[in-house]
Amino acid sequence: MTGMASLLGSYLPALNNPASAVILNEPIFMESVTQSIELKHESDEQCWSKLMVSAQAGNESDYRQLLTELTGVIYNFLRSRFGNHHFIEDCVQESLIAIHQARHTYDRQRRFRPWLFAIVRHKAIDTLRKQRTRQKVTSQFKGEQEIQNRTSHKSDAESELIKGRLLELLSIQQREVLILTKFIGFSVAEAAEKLGISESLVKVRVHRAINKLKQTMEADTL
Amino acid sequence: MNKHDTLISDLSRDLVPVSPSPNINMLALAWFLLSAIYVVAVTHLIGPIRPGAYSQLGTEPRFLLEMLLGVAAILWISLLAFRSAVPAALSRPFAITGLILMTFWLAQYVTGFISPALEPSTLGKRNYCYIETLVYALPVIVAGLFLIRRLYPLSPIRTAMSVGLVAGMLPALYMQLACMYEPAHILTFHILPGLLMVGAGAGIAMKWSLRQRSSDPQ
User: Fold this and answer.
1) pLDDT tens digits, residue range A145-185?
2) Residue in A closest to B86 by C-alpha
3) Beta carbons of A63 and B7 less than 8 Å apart
4) Domains and CATH numbers, chain A
5) pTM (2 decimals)?
6) Could A107 and B7 be called an inter-chain contact, meaning their C-beta atoms sit closer than 8 Å?
7) What is the pLDDT of residues B39-52, one digit of tens each?
8) What angle do CA B141, B144, B148 make, to 5 degrees?
């Protein structure tokens, strides 16, 4: 129900109201909404496929329209999985560049969405692995003390960080090292010190967390 | 204008038309067939094949099955390698089927220790069959990676390992006809060098991706 409600929320913002939950439980309503979502997917699919074929032929305006539409879709896809992180901005950009580099591999005989999201999933994990944004992130915080406060308690910031449903699948230990090193931007040594564990254990946990995210994303069907 | 808009206008400005990549299944099939012809030709050029090897295919059903299984497994992995070079073109069931086929084929040689498909003998032994397997595989790997370079493999190392597996297993398979038949010899001097080419493929791909990374402006 929660998943469906959030999905509906993205299509029908007016239904985000808790009072709408009763309506959402109605089977006929659910069925018709599911059908409308499928129709929207199908029309997006056809539209994007046409735009990409046109872009392959060198049509700049169609390509610009396609990339503009995909930016929002990729952003929502990543935000629903990882929460609202600064790294999503980088990831969207990386995905757009990858789509540009791989555009000749799109085959109109195949569906567009699997092609698109295979690239996005790959780029998300890739960006997460390469994430070294300490300076960028720490500048968003007022100081070291504030960062410590935010990481040692279940603060609003941390709650925001773990909002992504993929992160919720990780163990607490994996999630905390991932958030500290990849999202907040601590070095391995600093994260190890804060958690009171060895640096190698931090590296192992980060490695396992990313692998688990990768496996989960690969199994993620749209 | 936010940074996404700037990037989008940069990417779409002076957009160069691209020709869509060719049918990957046909490309894989062509690579497999040309590689097989090359392996057979070069094996015959270097030395004679085992006397009576082709007639054994007609008289020994298990031997025929073993060879057919090998061809099917290698062909499947060829398709798998090329599909893995295009985003979302390779499905999990397809990949698993390929691995099952390959394992099933190689298991034939392990069971051959108990019940060999042919009577083991040193007839037709080639002195440098293991070196031949390694050397014949290299041009096949290079050709495969050359064809794949225009595609967009999301996991280049995994793709190159599949290419290496096919390249190594093609000469290894043909050695069942060209060289002596004895399970321990097959596994040690034909299959093992063939499997080593998986590492060679990964090594080449790592060199490739390192080169790409070093030329990356960031």
Assistant:
1) 444 444 444 444 445 455 567 777 888 888 888 888 877 77
2) A105
3) no
4) 62-219 (1.10.10.10)
5) 0.76
6) no
7) 999 999 998 999 99
8) 135
